[in-house]
Amino acid sequence: MYELRSYQKELIKKIIDSMKKNHRVIIVQSPPRTGKTVSNG
């Protein structure tokens, strides 16, 4: 199991808040090396 970084948790919270406001199109932009990809090895 992976532990999310504080800025990742905040991003998820903002996405959920946006969905609760019935926003239909949500675009997430995050710079390289911010933990967007999880590898299996």
Short description:
The chain starts with 5 loop residues before the first helix and ends in a 21-residue tail after the last helix. With 41 residues, the protein is mostly helical. It has one helix spanning 6-20.
Helix content: 25-40%
Instruction: Count every beta strand, where a strand is a DSSP E run of 2 or more residues.
Output: 0
* Tally of contiguous helical segments: 1
SSE ordering: H
**Largest β-sheet summary:** none
Oligomer: single chain
Uncertain spans, ≥5 residues at pLDDT below 50?
none
Mean pLDDT: 90
Rounded to the nearest angstrom, the radius of gyration is 12 Å
Features:
single chain, 41 residues, mainly alpha, 37% helix, elongated
